[in-house]
């Protein structure tokens, strides 16, 4: 196992960079963070549409979430991989199509998490904003969203863990992220699959376990802040 | 864009047969890994409920491995890793049987067992301790209280999460394509490569996935309402 | 009928009951009162061994409840226990809550248990709610169901831990009315409550606890007179101010 790490650690971390394409763990992290950053504003819009007035926009948002949740991510990746270049008329990088697929998929999930954050706020917050004479946009962006997003920070970090795990599907369409690199190592070193996939699993585990511990820690902090507020209300 | 849709071409003869075979494989993987996963989840929950540190640690480690490593990698570990542990003769025999689908079922079932046991555990934890106290003060034994008061509430509390896991599992069966199981998305890709009918091949596979997903969602909402535990 | 002899209990280093000596006579109603943290709830929870004691003895009808041949579950099924928070089982309907002890402890069939449970619900005035779920009935109704459930095995004693404290004011009356009726029927009862008017009217004896010590044990007339212990008079005037 140590020989494999000794021989391939650089490949595992950054792929063939700087002599070839960037890859490995660095690529996995780049894909994951970019996906989360692009997903976030889309998810906020979906959440606003889902929690807004009933009507055509709410129906479209509902339809989007409901339909995307019914499709395996792998199918979305196939669609993005084959259909996107055909629609736009020129070939694009596989990593880009992977990000497109993850963003579409995660917008449906993160959107629901943020929507739950919005509906979980006490009704009095909106009423107080309305009583001050604030319109819809300032109410949402100055009063509701800052609180809702703060309360769902653990959920957002948890989605980052999910995205990191989902990015491994890039190996199916030859995106040179961590899993793809190790699959190639495996085909070089035919006789050591258990060690190679053990190392791969361990790298993901350390990354995701750390993030999920962070999620738990954030959850405790944020919920203790919330219960702290409740206690103050009860005393007053 | 001069693309001419021709669903007829994909929906007949050899291609139709491939799609149906793929659907069958998808359902076999889904149903078997669901059943095995659920049974294992119950076993894990019981083991973890017993106050014995070493076994509790082992279950926790099992759960954390399956939650923090990508599903795809878990499949690879079984498919590539497990085979080298076995003697060649056994491997040949397994491969004749179609070992890929077996590895896929094992990997998905273990993964779901980890998640579902967590759902059961949080269902158990969300029952107020006073329920146990009330049951004991009636004169029920610990086992009687578990059997008639605690568990009937626990599975109802866990049900929505378990149904959510069921949908995730169904969609997750598509990953079996990566280790060569000829399920629905594998067949879609094969047909696309053979016929160059990208939109038709993926369109039909996607439509089938969506139909079954919607059925699972619909059933989930009915069951969740039917068995909802309302606590004041 | 129930006798406490030098009963003491500790939570870790903290002593919560100090040498309690007292007797509850058969067919009487004993009310326990005292400031919060005085040990009154702990004391009644020792009766069915929900709280173990570390010193002293408790006897029920002359038998030590910690005797070797006593099965704790048989002991408990002979003592009705009512909680402040009702603790109905939310997955069971009202009548199923009352049937549960008959089905699972007496091992009766549903056909046997149901009429008996219905009769008990009739007794507490809730026959028409038999098929409702606990989530769909009021707090007062929930507590009456809990009382019906605790009486279904015909216990020797009914023990109630602040049965009206979790109720909205307008629902306290219906529960107290039921307790009055049960007391008139001659059921032996121990009840922790802050309802001093009820205590004065119904109780045969009132116990006052403070810091785990039973400081005063008297009939209501003496309890509410000026001869009562100074602690009792302070407590009563504090209770009156709050009401």
List the keywords.
heterotrimer; A: 236 residues; mainly alpha; MetI-like fold; disordered C terminus; C: 243 residues; alpha/beta; Rossmann fold; 6-stranded mixed beta sheet; globular
Radius of gyration of chain C (Å): 18 Å
Helices and strands of chain C, in N-to-C order?
A: EEEHEEHEHHHEHEHEEHH
Topology pattern of chain A, helix = H, strand = E: HHHHHHHHHH
Question: What is the CATH T-level topology of the domain at 2-84 and 155-241 in chain C?
Answer: Rossmann fold
Question: What does this protein structure show overall?
Answer:
Chain C: This is Polar amino acid transport system ATP-binding protein. Chain C: Pfam families: ABC_tran. Chain C: Residues 2-236 form the ABC transporter domain. Chain C: Keywords: ATP-binding, Nucleotide-binding, Transport. Chain C: InterPro entries: AAA+_ATPase, ABC_ATPase_HisP-typ, ABC_transporter-like_ATP-bd, ABC_transporter-like_CS, MetN_ABC_transporter-like, P-loop_NTPase. The complex is a heterotrimer of chains A (236), B (232) and C (243). Chain A is an all-alpha fold and 236 residues long. Chain A has helices at 2-14, 24-51, 56-69, 73-88, 94-119, 123-131, 136-151, 153-166, 178-188, 193-235. Chain B is an all-alpha fold. Chain B has a single domain, classed as MetI-like (MetI-like fold), CATH 1.10.3720. Chain B has 10 helices and no strands. Chain B starts with 6 loop residues before the first helix and ends in a 6-residue tail after the last helix. The model of chain B has no long low-confidence stretch (mean pLDDT 92). The longest helix of chain C is centred in the C-terminal third of the chain and has 16 residues, at 169-184. Chain C has a 6-stranded mixed sheet, with helices on both faces. A 4-stranded antiparallel sheet of chain C has the order 2-1-4-5, with helices on one face. The model of chain C has no long low-confidence stretch (mean pLDDT 93). In chain C, a hairpin with a 2-residue loop joins β1 and β2 (14-24). Chain C has helices spanning 40-47, 72-77, 94-104, 110-123, 139-151, 169-184, 196-202, 220-223, 230-242; strands spanning 2-11, 14-24, 29-33, 55-60, 63-64, 79-82, 157-161, 188-192, 205-210, 213-218. Chain C contains 9 helices and 10 strands. With 243 residues, chain C is an alpha/beta fold. Chain C has a domain at 2-84 and 155-241: Rossmann fold, CATH 3.40.50. The interface between A and B is large, with 40 and 42 residues.
């Amino acid at each position: 196992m140590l020989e494999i790490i000794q021989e391939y650690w650089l490949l595992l971390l950054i792929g063939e960079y700087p002599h070839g394409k960037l890859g490995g763990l660095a690529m996995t992290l780049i894909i994951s963070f970019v996906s989360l950053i692009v997903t976030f504003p889309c998810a906020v819009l979906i959440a606003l549409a889902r929690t807004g007035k009933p009507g055509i926009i709410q129906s479209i948002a509902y339809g989007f979430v409901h339909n995307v949740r019914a499709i395996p991510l792998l199918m979305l990746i196939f669609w993005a991989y084959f259909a996107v270049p055909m629609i736009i008329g020129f070939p694009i990088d596989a990593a880009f199509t992977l990000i497109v697929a993850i963003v579409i998929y995660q917008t449906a999930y993160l959107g629901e998490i943020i929507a739950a954050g919005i509906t979980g706020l006490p009704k009095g917050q909106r009423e107080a904003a309305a009583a001050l004479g604030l319109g819809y946009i300032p109410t949402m962006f100055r009063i509701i969203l800052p609180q809702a997003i703060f309360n769902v920070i653990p959920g957002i970090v948890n989605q980052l863990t999910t995205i990191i795990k989902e990015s491994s599907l890039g190996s199916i369409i030859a995106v040179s992220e961590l899993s793809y690199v190790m699959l190639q190592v495996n085909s070089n070193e035919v006789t050591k699959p258990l060690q190679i996939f053990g190392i791969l699993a361990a790298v993901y585990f350390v990354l995701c376990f750390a993030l999920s511990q962070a999620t738990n820690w954030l959850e405790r902090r944020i919920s203790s802040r919330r219960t702290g507020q409740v206690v103050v209300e009860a005393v007053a | 864009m001069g693309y001419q849709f021709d669903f007829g071409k994909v929906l007949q003869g050899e291609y139709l047969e491939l799609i149906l075979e793929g659907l069958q494989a998808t359902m076999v993987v889904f149903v078997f890994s669901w059943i095995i996963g659920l049974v294992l989840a119950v076993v894990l929950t019981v083991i973890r409920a017993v106050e014995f540190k070493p076994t509790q640690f082992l279950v926790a480690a099992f759960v954390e491995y399956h939650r923090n490593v990508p599903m795809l990698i878990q499949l690879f570990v079984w498919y590539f890793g497990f085979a080298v542990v076995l003697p060649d003769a056994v491997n040949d025999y397994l491969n004749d049987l179609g070992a890929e689908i077996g590895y896929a079922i094992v990997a998905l079932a273990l993964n779901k067992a980890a998640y579902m046991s967590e759902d059961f555990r949080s269902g158990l934890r969300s029952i107020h301790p006073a329920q146990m106290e009330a049951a004991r003060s009636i004169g029920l034994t610990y086992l009687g209280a578990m059997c008639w008061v605690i568990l009937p509430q626990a599975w109802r509390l866990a049900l929505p999460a378990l149904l959510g896991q069921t949908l995730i599992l169904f969609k997750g069966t598509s990953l079996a394509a990566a280790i060569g199981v000829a399920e629905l998305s594998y067949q879609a890709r094969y047909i696309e490569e053979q016929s160059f009918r990208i939109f038709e091949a993926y369109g039909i596979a996607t439509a089938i996935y969506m139909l079954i997903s919607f059925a699972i969602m619909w059933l989930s909402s009915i069951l969740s309402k039917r068995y909802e535990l309302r606590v004041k | 009928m129930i006798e406490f002899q030098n009963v003491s209990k500790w939570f870790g280093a903290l002593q919560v009951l100090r040498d309690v000596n007292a007797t509850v006579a058969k067919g009487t109603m004993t009310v326990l009162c005292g400031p919060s943290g005085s040990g009154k709830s702990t004391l009644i929870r020792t009766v069915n061994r929900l709280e173990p004691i570390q010193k002293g003895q408790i006897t029920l009808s002359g038998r030590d409840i910690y005797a070797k041949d006593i099965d704790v579950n048989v002991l408990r099924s002979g003592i009705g226990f009512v909680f402040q928070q009702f603790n109905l089982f939310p997955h069971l309907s009202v009548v199923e809550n009352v049937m549960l002890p008959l089905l699972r402890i007496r091992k009766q069939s549903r056909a046997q248990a149901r009429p008996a449970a219905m009769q008990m619900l009739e007794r507490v005035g809730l026959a028409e709610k038999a098929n409702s779920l606990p989530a769909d009935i009021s707090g007062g109704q929930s507590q009456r169901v809990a009382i019906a459930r605790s009486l279904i095995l015909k216990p020797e004693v009914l023990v109630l831990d602040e049965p009206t404290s979790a109720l909205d004011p307008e629902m306290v009356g219906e529960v107290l009315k039921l307790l009055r009726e049960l007391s008139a029927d001659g059921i032996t009862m121990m009840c922790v409550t802050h309802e001093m008017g009820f205590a004065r009217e119904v109780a045969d004896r009132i116990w006052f606890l403070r810091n785990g010590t039973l400081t005063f044990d008297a009939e209501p007339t003496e309890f509410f007179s000026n001869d009562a212990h100074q602690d009792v008079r302070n407590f009563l005037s504090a209770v009156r101010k709050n009401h």
